[in-house]
């Protein structure tokens, strides 16, 4: 393997694989291109038609659904005359009152704060990138978004709801409320927003506006 | 290593670290790396983040965090994670006894789901991390591609072990009917929660490029 830097192509068209550090030339066409690392198979670039617009729309829809999904009860239970319903935050609040601070903190963090922050960041990044403004904020927003991503666990929470339903369905009279459907919609929209988000496109816009 | 086998892929030319280039971890910009100032702080030209050719002390950190997580799994499995009190009688459940109770009530699919999420995933994730660490440390001869797949699995499955914690939080909120029935969380849930969090940190501190560095050293 040669160690010379003579034949190094232009910087803008060269990148390295995030997972194995292999140098790869970036293609010139910007849309509809998916580049897999030839060495380890990691997807280095995945540019889709109007990825920014898709992320914008999906994150906006998800943010709107976030409100009913967390305010309306997800489900309710009836035993005899007594009924009790729950939302994400009520569950955490009861854990907190029972002094399970760690558990309460993790539930609020992974099923409420991080998803909300992720969606707000995605929305502001895409809006500002479309307007070509506020690039200083966009740079830090993308960085924060990438750091917190592994802590958003909406899909796991959704699965937790399903498991709870199955566990309780024989024991008590269970009523599924509107909040659950909003939660399902929220999960769908936020997954789509995260999947369609293309940080490469945003970084290119950042570079463009700098010059 | 054959980097250029795929005709669709533009010609690649070795690894970034050998060309004096470093990929910024935050914005994925390729920056020049001044080897003469390897110990000084070098910042990314685009976003200003501190750059490291490889994550610093990756192996030592991953070992420390994953061993701590394994220790947390012990109280997480011994202490009860929740107690169901109905008609004055209390019944404590550990993770395993919860699974066994579900089998007892013939709820097999849900028992399997809870078992996978709360027992199999945490253990497999730690074992996966240890295999990766050992393979890098002792230069094991297995295929780097396979180990990369293992690394991705470890990253992907991590969050699913939070499932049982969420289920407890939902049940506690839902079944809180005073005299009839109450569900209380147990300290096992706290330990389990900690184990999950520390395992996620452990997986993040592992640098997958180490797998390929080692392969290259062998070929040279
Ligand atoms: Zn690669
Ligand atoms: Zn950078």
From TrEMBL, chain A:
It comes from the Bacteria. The chain crosses the membrane at residues 56-80, 100-129, 175-195. InterPro entries: PqiA-like. Keywords: Membrane, Transmembrane, Transmembrane helix. This is Paraquat-inducible protein A. It comes from Corallincola holothuriorum. The lineage of its organism: Bacteria, Pseudomonadati, Pseudomonadota, Gammaproteobacteria, Alteromonadales.
TrEMBL record, chain B:
It is found in: Cell inner membrane. Its main location: membrane. GO terms for cellular component: plasma membrane. Keywords: Cell inner membrane, Cell membrane, Membrane, Transmembrane, Transmembrane helix. The chain crosses the membrane at residues 63-87, 107-140, 160-179, 185-203. This is Paraquat-inducible membrane protein A. It comes from Corallincola holothuriorum.
């Amino acid at each position: 393997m040669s160690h010379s830097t003579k034949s190094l192509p232009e910087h803008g068209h060269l990148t390295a694989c995030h997972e194995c550090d292999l140098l790869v030339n970036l293609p010139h066409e910007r849309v509809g291109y998916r580049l897999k690392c030839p060495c380890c198979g990691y997807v280095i670039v995945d540019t889709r038609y109007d990825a920014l617009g898709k992320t914008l729309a999906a994150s906006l829809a998800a943010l709107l659904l976030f409100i009913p999904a967390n305010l309306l009860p997800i489900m309710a239970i009836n035993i005899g005359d007594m009924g009790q319903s729950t939302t994400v935050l009520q569950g955490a609040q009861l854990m907190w009152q029972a002094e399970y601070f760690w558990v309460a903190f993790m539930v609020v963090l992974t099923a409420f704060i991080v998803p909300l922050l992720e969606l707000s960041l995605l929305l502001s990044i895409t809006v500002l990138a479309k307007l070509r403004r506020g690039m200083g904020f966009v740079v830090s927003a993308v960085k924060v978004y990438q750091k917190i991503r592994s802590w958003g666990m909406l899909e796991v929470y959704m699965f937790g709801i399903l498991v709870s339903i199955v566990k309780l369905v024989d024991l008590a009279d269970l009523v599924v409320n509107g909040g659950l459907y909003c939660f399902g919609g929220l999960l769908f929209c936020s997954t789509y927003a995260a999947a369609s988000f293309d940080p490469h496109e945003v970084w290119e816009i950042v570079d463009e506006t700098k010059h | 290593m054959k980097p250029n086998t795929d005709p669709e892929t533009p010609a690649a030319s070795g690894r970034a670290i050998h060309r004096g280039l470093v990929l910024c971890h935050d914005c994925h910009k390729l920056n020049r790396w001044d080897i003469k100032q390897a110990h000084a702080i070098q910042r990314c030209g685009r976003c200003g983040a501190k750059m490291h050719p490889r994550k610093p002390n990756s192996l030592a950190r991953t070992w420390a965090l994953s061993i701590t997580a394994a220790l947390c799994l012990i109280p997480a499995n011994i202490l009860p994670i929740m107690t169901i009190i109905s008609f004055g009688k209390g019944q404590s459940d550990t993770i395993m006894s919860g699974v066994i109770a579900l089998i007892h009530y013939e709820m097999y699919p849900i028992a399997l789901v809870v078992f996978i999420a709360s027992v199999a995933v945490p253990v497999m994730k730690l074992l996966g991390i240890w295999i990766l660490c050992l393979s890098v440390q002792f230069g094991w001869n297995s295929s780097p591609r396979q180990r990369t797949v293992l690394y991705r699995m470890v990253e992907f499955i991590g969050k699913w072990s939070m499932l049982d914690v969420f289920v407890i939080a939902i049940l506690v909120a839902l079944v809180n009917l005073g005299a009839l029935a109450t569900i209380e969380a147990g300290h096992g849930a706290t330990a389990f929660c900690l184990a999950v969090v520390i395992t996620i940190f452990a997986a993040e501190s592992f640098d997958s490029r180490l797998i390929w560095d080692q392969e290259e050293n062998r070929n040279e």
